[in-house]
Amino acid sequence: MSSSSRFIAKQATIPNLVIGIATAGGLYTAYSYIRSATSSEPRKTFGNSIAGSLTLQQTEEINHNTKRLRFSFPNARDETGLTVVSSVLTFSWPKGSLAPAIRPYTPVSNLSKPGFIDLMVKKYPGGKVSTHLHSLQPGDSLFFAFGIKAYSWIPNKHDHITLIAGGAGITPIYQLIQGILDNPEDRTKMTLVFGVNTERDILLRKEFENYGSKFPDRFKVVYTVSEPEEGSPFRKGHVTKELLKEVLPARTDKVFVCGPPGLETALTGKGRGDSGILGELGYKKDQIFKF
Fold first, then answer.
1. pTM score > 0.70 for this model?
2. Which residues constitute the domain of residue 207?
3. Does the annotation list 107 as a binding residue?
């Protein structure tokens, strides 16, 4: 989660703001459906106003603890209105909760495709929100507040970038990869290092393989698995200094990081004076962006 996402989520716990967003969102949802039914112009769902409640269209089991949830827009022509890289702020009411739980999620669907938005949600042990979202069935709804711009990506600003992800932290990284490789005007090269606990935790593997086949000179992915199966084709271990020295090119202009706190701390340091693994490899603070 980006610093702006953390700030907004924290502020959104203020009761008056929660009530205001919920009330405005309910009214705006009704307005959106009326407008979509009568207007020939597509609406930007996450434009300059509250998106409102969106209906769950379908679900897909990705692995033992992750689902892909597709939420449809009121009109099939409606667009997301989001830019690379953005997340969306959601409100949900898990069972037994009096106040709404507020969480940002990074869409994994192509932001330019109209009619829907896909979220990839990992179910955590004891996680009220993730458990609630996994319980949703087609026809149920989820309240979406607004989009949050995490990073202002400029095509071709960098010749090569490095992407380092751990676990479910792959979602904003994947959105950036999509935004670059699906844009015929963007020629940026990328190396992705993806660390997971087990092979079952390698999310979006098929998508990465397709990109690797289509753009072999521009996209490379390296997996490292903490607990690989016997005979696994993947390297064993965590994201380490030795691994990064081995797989990264001699020159990379920008490094994007997203993952569990332990991974981010190891890579970027604990604070002032501690530069972490990336600092030891010669990367400056302004070359590193944490989602």
1. yes
2. 160-290
3. no
